[in-house]
Amino acid sequence: MNILDTIKAQKLKEVANLKAQFSTSFLEEQPLFNSATHSLRKAIESSVTGGIIAEFKRKSPAKGNINLDANVVEVTQGYANAAVSGLSVLTDVDFFGARTNDFELARKNNTIPMLRKDFMVDEYQIIQSKAMGADVILLIAKILNKKQMQSYINLAHELGMEVFLETQNEAEILDNLDLNFDLIGINNRNLNSFEVSVENSIKLAQLLPKSSNKIAESGINSLETIQLLQANGFHGFLIGEYFMKEENPAEKCRNLIQKLL
């Protein structure tokens, strides 16, 4: 069993426990459930600061502890002040070290688009995401079948959220091009071996229509890397560890964006 299989199995148990505690009716009664959403796609399309999606992440299976004690409000507000296009906030506790109120605090203190970064394996999580105030949900092609993805996309759109589809290889792109996702990410990290290669994004980007909102993920750690990816048709860049490993993630983010101007 690889790490994704392990995470998916744990996530299914987690969702079952949540369903037993909180009904979907309860989620739909939460104050943020009917709140207006902010478009990450439009923010990236109109960005003059590089289309950066800055991530708040405490740890990961690939890198272990990254910044366990980071202050989510300080970091995400700092990212927003640096003029990022959007925020990505991990909500997985077991494998990524999220605190249960990380997303809530980030949402309460920021008005820019926010992606809920987690492993969606059940429609319940889509409804939960809207109740949390998410603008965008992540769907990982490697752990979902096409029927599930289309169902989740339809539900997310009905609730006013956008969908970020994460892919990692040629089959995941070609098999799902006809889905009506809003953003498509190519992950440079092999989720089985954890090896990172930016060449993966460059190679796979050629399979996508020019009209696709292409986002590169993982291994983005320099101005030169971003410029190379931009030259190959990428519009946005999801960056987490490169910022979060620093004592002041927001300052690292701000310095990178200033170089992009």
Automatic annotation (TrEMBL):
The keyword RNA-binding does not apply. Gene3D superfamilies: Aldolase class I. Keywords: Amino-acid biosynthesis, Aromatic amino acid biosynthesis, Decarboxylase, Lyase, Tryptophan biosynthesis. It comes from the Bacteria. InterPro entries: Aldolase_TIM (IPR013785), Indole-3-glycerol_P_synth (IPR045186), Indole-3-glycerol_P_synth_dom (IPR013798), RibuloseP-bd_barrel (IPR011060). Its EC number is 4.1.1.48. Residues 4-256 form the Indole-3-glycerol phosphate synthase domain. It catalyses: 1-(2-carboxyphenylamino)-1-deoxy-D-ribulose 5-phosphate + H(+) = (1S,2R)-1-C-(indol-3-yl)glycerol 3-phosphate + CO2 + H2O. The keyword Amino-acid biosynthesis applies. One of its GO terms (molecular function) is indole-3-glycerol-phosphate synthase activity. Pathway: Amino-acid biosynthesis; L-tryptophan biosynthesis; L-tryptophan from chorismate: step 4/5. GO terms for biological process: L-tryptophan biosynthetic process. PANTHER family: INDOLE-3-GLYCEROL-PHOSPHATE SYNTHASE (PTHR22854:SF2), TRYPTOPHAN BIOSYNTHESIS PROTEIN (PTHR22854). This is indole-3-glycerol-phosphate synthase. It comes from Flavobacterium aquatile LMG 4008 = ATCC 11947.
